Amino acid sequence: MSSVDKTQAQSSLELVFNKETDLPTTLVLTVLIGRRNEHGKTAKGNAAFSDGVEHIAFTYSYQFDTSRSNSLDDIPLPVRKLLK
Fold first, then answer.
1. Distance (Å, rounded) from C-alpha 61 to C-alpha 16?
2. CB atoms within 10 A of CB 7
3. 63 vs 10, 24, 70, 79, CA distance in Å?
4. Sheet containing strand 24-34, strands side by side
5. Which residues in 49-78 are b (16+ Cβ under 10 Å) and which e?
6. Which long-range contacts (CB under 8 A, 24 or more apart) does 20-27 make?
7. pTM of the full structure
């Protein structure tokens, strides 16, 4: 549940790896948000995201560039600190 406006929200993060190189190829973030029905109520728990219950879905997909290898030296120091 979102603490901001008391809505039901659920998110998932999927990281797909290349089986040959063991490098990540795709990152997919999915966010589901329950919608209020005609009575102003949102279904509780996972019921808010089940088939037949209206909800909002947001999906973001990022494809990693694996055309060349990188080392940590290629990543700026401030960014490396955020990755720790």
1. 11
2. 16
3. 23, 9, 15, 19
4. 9-17, 24-34, 55-63
5. beeeeebeeeeeeeeeeeeeeeeeeeeeee
6. 21/66, 23/64, 23/66, 24/64, 25/63, 25/64, 25/66, 26/61, 26/62, 26/63, 26/64, 27/61, 27/62, 27/64
7. 0.58
The structure tokens listed for 74 are: 């290629």
pLDDT tens digits for 30-78?
Answer: 988 776 666 666 666 666 666 666 677 889 999 888 777 767 677 788 8
For 81, the token pair is 């600190």
Output the CA angle 18-11-39, nearest 5 degrees.
150
**Partners of 17 in the β-ladder:** 24
